[in-house]
Design brief:
heterodimer, A: mainly beta, six-stranded mixed sheet, B: mainly beta, four-stranded antiparallel sheet, 11 strands, globular
């Protein structure tokens, strides 16, 4: 079992729909939770990150973390065709050696928003 | 503002050949890393560096070497290419060991035949 599980999709929704993307994880030591967006043939770019449990909102995007359930979500309101991309969750914990936050990535979920 | 620059973007190698993927960043980041991305496997960490002169192995280091002689550059060397190394490679950097915002390059598409 991978430390971070993410359904690869694809998830196809009509324009304007609310999208819910999710990841589960097994390592209770994870402290930082991130969402990256990756357009086709491009590198991932950070969309949002949160520390510990709770919600964080940024425009049409809301990141939610439930540490008790080891479950994180990314919600996209009023989805647009330009949101079509692969969304990767990532999580990190401070390592004793070097104190480096090395993230563990999910496999990514492919989202298609059709007009 | 160049960010993280990778070269080449596309490369075809024959089995057994060696090559180096170049990565440079102009953000004065201490932490740099290399990932490979394969269908269904997500991003897997190959090697990383927390500063000049310091490197360490990630999840899938076999068949790859790295060095970090300067803060700016972090080349990835394939010693003897194998078809299993056909993948998309991403270089990434962040400010320092405690930073969480990782900046990725555009990727290098490598095919080994």
């Amino acid at each position: 079992q991978k430390e971070v599980e993410q359904d690869p999709g694809p998830l196809s929704v009509p324009e304007g729909a609310i999208v819910s993307l999710n990841c589960t994880y097994s390592n209770s030591a994870f402290q930082y939770f991130m969402w990256y967006r990756q357009y086709s043939r491009k590198g991932p770019e950070l969309l949002m990150y949160t520390y510990s449990s709770g919600n964080k909102e940024d425009g049409r995007f809301t990141a939610q973390v439930d540490k008790s359930s080891k479950y994180i979500s990314l919600f996209i309101r009023d989805s647009q065709p330009s949101d079509s991309a692969t969304y990767l969750c990532a999580m990190s914990v401070s390592l004793l050696r070097g104190g480096s936050y090395i993230p563990t990535f999910g496999r990514g979920t492919s989202l298609i928003v059709h007009p | 503002n160049a960010g993280v620059t990778q070269t080449p973007k596309f490369q075809v190698l024959k089995t057994g050949q060696s090559m180096t993927l170049q990565c440079a960043q102009d953000m004065n980041h201490e932490y740099m890393s290399w990932y490979r991305q394969d269908p269904g496997m997500g991003l897997r960490l190959i090697h990383y560096s927390v500063g000049a002169g310091i490197t360490d192995q990630g999840e899938v280091p076999n068949g790859y070497n790295v060095s970090r002689s300067t803060t700016e550059d972090f080349p990835l060397r394939l010693l003897s290419a194998a078809p299993s190394q056909t993948s998309v490679y991403f270089c990434a950097s962040k400010t320092d060991s405690s930073g969480n915002t990782i900046y990725f390059g555009e990727g290098s598409w490598l095919t080994v035949v």
